[in-house]
Design a protein that fits this description.
Blueprint (H helix, E strand, L loop, with lengths): L2 H13 L5 H20 L4 H8 L2 H15 L5 H51 L10 E2 L2 E2 L5 H41 L1
Antiparallel strand pairs: 1-2
Helix pairs in contact: 1-2, 1-4, 4-5, 4-6, 5-6
Length: 188
Amino acid sequence: MNEKATHYLQQLSKHLNQLETQEKIDILEEVESHIFEAVSNGASIDQVLQALGDPKKLAQSYTSEALLKKDSFNLSSMAQLVKFYFITGFSGMFIIPVVGILSIAFYFSAFVVIAAGIIKTIGLFFGYSLPISVMNFGFWQAPDFMVLPICLIFGLLFYVGSKKMWRWLKDYLFSISVAHRKIKSSNE
């Protein structure tokens, strides 16, 4: 087995300590089989491990699934299940709106900053010093001729930041969706 896959399985095993030994072995064999099959079908080990996601989150989804399957009531299992859903729901209340709003704000800011730099530069060609874009960095104010390059740099940073936040938000929502599907299918 590949060194990366072995490390991934070790991390997964570490986070599955709450389960009974046989359940833990079954899960590790299932994941190892999935990795082997995907690599045999031509996927790279990095692609497979990325698709599986964070070993801790994968272990949490397996743990919650195992807890839902148990018929017997025990306080420890109930506490683990409540913890899983509380963390998922609580983080979703803050992560989804904050990252979503920041992603949109950065996206529009990228265009506004670039437009302000262009307007300021056009004004300079006609002899006007438009106060639409003034670059102050503490005590230093950027000269008018440097406003456009600075605005382009900041616009690019805002744009890249918005795309990264958007991708992170989609990955987060996907991981919650996968965990939800696993839990839903175990209830059926």
